[in-house]
């Protein structure tokens, strides 16, 4: 309940909240991300930096995509086929899912989340009842319901620069995503084999969050994102020294910077600030 209050705008430590071992950290972890927000499970802010700036969020968008798909109760075993409508005409990114590739809705959802597969995300939106326009509308309806007042969604893959949010709003979305077992499963799966073509071998996909391979980290949910305008982004729910912690990092320069920032945060927290 206290976490929910914090996600509604109570972005400060309060005497009423149960204190974690990280509640009174001092100093600066030296993060390179432009915006950052770290909270414990009771709603205490462990660290905050530029939490209200509206920024593009790239593929962090796919967490909203997954929630909207799952909220609709669509059959997860239904087969979905990639078509030309799923091409990325914004960034012109490629994909190993060629036209005609067919997977279940569940597999498309897992690929979109764990490997940030853009065509899989597009196919999920395209096959939503009412089509893509209705899907994007549902994304924004969900954002409103979550109290994400400074967020806007424009496509299911996060390719458009109009997908924007704040660190504060994304903390709300991250908290909501934790309630979906399939999202936590997908975003913490390190590798997955799929068979999208008849009479052909499997394709192996890997998770975009390299911290999942690091034995020092206990990660329960995560999503990465990148387009030029957004920089490198990362949101995570993890356990550090027995404490549940939620992390939002936005607009980092450099491919490895969000992972470096995450490690800097963890070291700062374990050292007591």
UniProtKB/TrEMBL annotation:
<feature type="binding site">
    <location>
        <position position="223"/>
    </location>
    <ligand>
        <name>substrate</name>
    </ligand>
</feature>
<dbReference type="InterPro" id="IPR018044">
    <property type="entry name" value="Peptidase_S11"/>
</dbReference>
<dbReference type="GO" id="GO:0009002">
    <property type="term" value="F:serine-type D-Ala-D-Ala carboxypeptidase activity"/>
</dbReference>
<dbReference type="GO" id="GO:0071555">
    <property type="term" value="P:cell wall organization"/>
</dbReference>
<keyword id="KW-0573">Peptidoglycan synthesis</keyword>
<keyword id="KW-0732">Signal</keyword>
<keyword id="KW-0378">Hydrolase</keyword>
<dbReference type="InterPro" id="IPR012338">
    <property type="entry name" value="Beta-lactam/transpept-like"/>
</dbReference>
<feature type="active site" description="Acyl-ester intermediate">
    <location>
        <position position="59"/>
    </location>
</feature>
<protein>
    <submittedName>
        <fullName>D-alanyl-D-alanine endopeptidase</fullName>
        <ecNumber>3.4.21.-</ecNumber>
    </submittedName>
</protein>
<dbReference type="GO" id="GO:0008360">
    <property type="term" value="P:regulation of cell shape"/>
</dbReference>
<feature type="active site">
    <location>
        <position position="116"/>
    </location>
</feature>
<feature type="domain" description="Peptidase S11 D-alanyl-D-alanine carboxypeptidase A N-terminal">
    <location>
        <begin position="28"/>
        <end position="253"/>
    </location>
</feature>
<dbReference type="GO" id="GO:0006508">
    <property type="term" value="P:proteolysis"/>
</dbReference>
<feature type="active site" description="Proton acceptor">
    <location>
        <position position="62"/>
    </location>
</feature>
<dbReference type="InterPro" id="IPR001967">
    <property type="entry name" value="Peptidase_S11_N"/>
</dbReference>
<keyword id="KW-0961">Cell wall biogenesis/degradation</keyword>
<dbReference type="Pfam" id="PF00768">
    <property type="entry name" value="Peptidase_S11"/>
</dbReference>
<comment type="similarity">
    <text>Belongs to the peptidase S11 family.</text>
</comment>
<feature type="signal peptide">
    <location>
        <begin position="1"/>
        <end position="17"/>
    </location>
</feature>
<keyword id="KW-0133">Cell shape</keyword>
<dbReference type="GO" id="GO:0009252">
    <property type="term" value="P:peptidoglycan biosynthetic process"/>
</dbReference>
């Amino acid at each position: 309940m206290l976490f929910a209050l914090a996600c509604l705008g109570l972005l400060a430590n309060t005497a009423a909240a149960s204190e974690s071992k990280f509640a009174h950290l001092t100093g600066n972890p030296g993060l390179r991300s432009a915006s950052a927000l770290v909270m414990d499970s009771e709603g205490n802010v462990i660290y905050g930096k530029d939490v209200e700036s509206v920024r593009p969020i790239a593929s962090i968008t796919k967490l909203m995509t997954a929630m909207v798909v799952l909220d609709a109760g669509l059959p997860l075993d239904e087969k979905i086929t990639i078509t030309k409508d799923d091409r990325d005409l914004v960034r012109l990114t490629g994909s190993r899912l060629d036209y005609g590739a067919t997977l279940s809705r569940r597999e498309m959802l897992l690929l979109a989340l764990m490997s940030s597969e853009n065509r899989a995300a597009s196919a999920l939106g395209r096959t939503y009842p009412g089509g893509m326009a209705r899907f994007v509308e549902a994304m924004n309806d969900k954002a409103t319901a979550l109290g994400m007042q400074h967020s806007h969604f424009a496509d299911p893959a996060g390719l458009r620069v109009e997908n924007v949010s704040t660190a504060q709003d994304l903390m709300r979305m991250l908290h909501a995503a934790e309630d979906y077992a399939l999202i936590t499963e997908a975003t913490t799966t390190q590798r997955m084999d799929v068979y999208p073509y008849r009479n052909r071998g499997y394709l192996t996909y890997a998770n975009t969050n390299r911290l999942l391979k690091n034995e020092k980290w206990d990660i329960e949910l995560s999503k990465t994102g990148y387009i030029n305008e957004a920089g490198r982004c990362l949101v995570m729910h993890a356990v550090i020294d027995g404490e549940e912690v939620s992390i939002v990092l936005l607009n980092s320069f450099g491919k490895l910077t969000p992972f470096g920032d995450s490690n800097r945060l963890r070291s700062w927290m374990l050292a007591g600030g």
